[in-house]
Backbone:
């Protein structure tokens, strides 16, 4: 056999080998799939403008072998399921507050992402929920219209868009939001007693628990002390704390024992409950400045509900003015004797404390923090 024939045979075998490899590679390639980039609850902070154009990002993973058509629908059952699993009370954004500019899109083989444009009417959303709050959500679902493109798992085909309107005030600075999707690197725990697993991050929330018959004081707080004038918000699920039990949910700012501003949500002792005529389904909220000067006001709220608790600190003639509000309603106000040389750590807590009941808890208790937010004032 001459050399030319050997070269031809080798070439043919090489082609057959490469073809087999290619077929085997294609056989093992994972089919193209599609998913929403920001699935779950997606907070979108926007300026206080009239209209806002948002693009919902959809990505196609894989080797770009397929094309398809996908559409966008609004599915209120997604929000029902979310509210149940997260013990929240968000409402579906009314239809006059948004417009889906394009609800169906062709995805070509070469595309790796596409966008669904949605225009939000910020003026109308502001009328519903005000500035700095989230009460209404747009529950979106992506559906594959053509079968060529495989959908990803169901959780990655949905998103809940939550529009939060920021202030246009020129004195407003940076906003920091701790969502508790995992343990924030700039927070730490203070477990005064045992059982560190009583502070956990689960389902995008911070869960703090205490055990029956103990004096446990469970706290999570920022590592930084450098929080000064600004707006502080805690989104908290107020659970079914027992009547008369020494257990309180805390959301507070702490420098030292004379420079501390608190929300403490608790049963209260027998005398306090009688004074404020608290019903069995109600707890007392203690809004307190622990010193300089000492100040306290108490109001009632219902148990087993989500609330947004807010402390607003603003410099007035060189000293802080503190305002306490619940769900946007001002509840207490006090001019303090100190100013921005005093800075704070931000705390979340659940503590079995003496002042807020008559006896140690007879059951395990818990609370949930959905997020904590700090907006600086310049």
Residues:
């Amino acid at each position: 056999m001459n050399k030319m024939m050997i070269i031809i045979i080798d070439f043919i075998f090489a082609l057959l080998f490469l073809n087999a490899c290619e077929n085997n590679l294609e056989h093992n390639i994972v089919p193209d799939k599609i998913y929403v980039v920001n699935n779950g609850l997606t907070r979108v902070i926007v300026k206080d403008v009239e209209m806002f154009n948002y693009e919902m990002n959809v990505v196609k993973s894989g080797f770009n072998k397929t094309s398809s058509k996908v559409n966008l629908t609004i599915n209120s059952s997604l929000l029902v399921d979310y509210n149940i699993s997260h013990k929240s009370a968000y409402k579906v954004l009314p239809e006059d507050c948004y417009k889906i500019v394009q609800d169906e899109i062709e995805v070509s083989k070469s595309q790796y992402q596409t966008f669904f444009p949605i225009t939000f009417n910020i003026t109308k959303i502001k009328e519903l929920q005000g500035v700095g709050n989230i009460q209404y959500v747009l529950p979106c679902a992506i559906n594959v219209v053509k079968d060529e493109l495989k959908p990803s798992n169901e959780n990655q085909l949905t998103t809940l868009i939550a529009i939060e309107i920021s202030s246009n005030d020129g004195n407003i600075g940076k906003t920091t939001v701790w969502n508790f999707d995992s343990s924030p690197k700039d927070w730490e725990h203070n477990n005064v007693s045992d059982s560190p697993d009583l502070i956990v991050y689960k389902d995008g929330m911070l869960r703090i628990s205490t055990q029956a018959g103990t004096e446990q004081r469970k706290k999570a707080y920022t590592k930084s002390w450098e929080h000064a004038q600004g707006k502080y918000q805690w989104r908290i699920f107020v659970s079914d704390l027992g009547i008369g039990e020494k257990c309180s949910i805390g959301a507070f700012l702490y420098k030292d024992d004379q420079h501390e501003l608190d929300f403490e949500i608790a049963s209260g002792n027998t005398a306090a409950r009688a004074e404020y005529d608290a019903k069995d389904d109600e707890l007392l909220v203690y809004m307190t400045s622990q010193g300089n000067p000492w100040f306290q006001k108490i109001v009632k709220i219902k148990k087993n509900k989500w609330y947004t608790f807010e402390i607003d600190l603003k410099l007035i003639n060189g000293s802080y003015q503190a305002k306490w509000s619940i769900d946007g309603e001002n509840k207490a106000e006090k001019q303090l004797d100190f100013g921005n040389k005093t800075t704070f750590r931000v705390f979340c807590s659940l503590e079995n404390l003496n002042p807020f009941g008559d006896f140690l808890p007879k059951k395990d208790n818990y609370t949930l923090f959905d997020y904590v937010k700090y907006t600086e004032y310049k």
